[in-house]
Amino acid sequence: MANGTGKEATLHQTILREIEGRIVSGEWPPGFRLPFEVDLAEHYGCSRMTVNKVMTQLAKAGLIERHRKAGSFVTRPRAQSAVLELHDIEAEVKSLGLPYAYTLISRKDRRSNAEDRRLMELDQPTPMIELLAVHRAGARPFCVEERRINAGAVPEAADTDFATNAPGQWLIAQVPWSAAENRIQAMGAPAEAARLLELPKGTACLVVERRTWSHAGPITFVRLTYPGDSHTLIARFAPAQ
Questions:
Q1: CATH 1.10.10.10 domain extents, the chain
Q2: What is the pLDDT of residues 43-98, one digit of tens each?
Q3: pTM for the whole structure
Q4: What is the pLDDT of residues 132-150, one digit of tens each?
Q5: Residue 192: CB partners within 8 Å, gap ≥ 6?
Q6: Cα dist. 108→63, 128, 170, 191 in Å?
Q7: CB of 229 within 8 A of CB of 143?
Q8: pLDDT number for residue 26
Q9: Phi, psi dihedrals of residue 215, rounded to the nearest 5°
Q10: Which of 71, 180, 229, 236 has CB 3.0 to 4.6 Å from 212, enough for a Cys bridge?
Q11: Model confidence at 240, in pLDDT bands (50, 70, 90)?
Q12: Of 45 and 24, the one with more pLDDT
């Protein structure tokens, strides 16, 4: 069963990257109607559910619009991130028309500590994976990612090579989440984040801290630090009824 899940996750990433590539490269321009899910499933030799998950992720990233019965269409890429969505950093960078790169700086597999329990609201000790990574947009660092993954709730993470798989994208594909919380603040870049962002210490940055949960409990805590002059968060509201 584990091997099947791994193969399905790999195929999911393959389909996602191929469709993203066609959109970002302009091969599929704004307004282009994508093949129907049943046709994509037949083309890739996979279940329609796998294709549906890819389409859902592309829609959340703002790369496509889905219309009932009419199909899915390429949208104009947005440079901003939606405050209430779990966005894909790679898709976000590519929406700017820039090449994306990801580098894992460090990984620690350990037992949870007091800070983990505070950040993730853990009620008992659990295996923990702590990651530090940098995402780049062209020649510039785009953001620094500091992440903790509850390997007790997501045991597959222990055998995943996050040197090649960005953890955010992997988690979205692997774990159905039921709730998320965003905390957003402006702050001066601490020494390590400033070094990785290639900025002077104390430079104004936008920091997004996110926690997600599933039926199994807390999944992950992540702190994303962006240079303050190059990132915008947006939110759309409707009047209360």
A1: 2-74
A2: 999 999 999 999 998 888 778 998 887 899 998 644 445 444 566 889 888 888 88
A3: 0.64
A4: 999 999 889 999 999 999 9
A5: 144
A6: 34, 8, 18, 20
A7: no
A8: 80
A9: -60, -20
A10: 180
A11: low
A12: 45
The token pair at 19 is 């469709």
> Is pLDDT above 60 for 214?
yes
- For tokens 């037992």, name the residue: 111
Give the right CATH number for 2-74 from 3.20.20.70, 1.10.10.10, 1.10.3720.10, 2.40.128.270: 1.10.10.10
Task: State the span(s) of the chain assigned CATH 3.40.1410.10.
Answer: 81-234
Give the domain 81-234 fold: Chorismate lyase (3.40.1410)
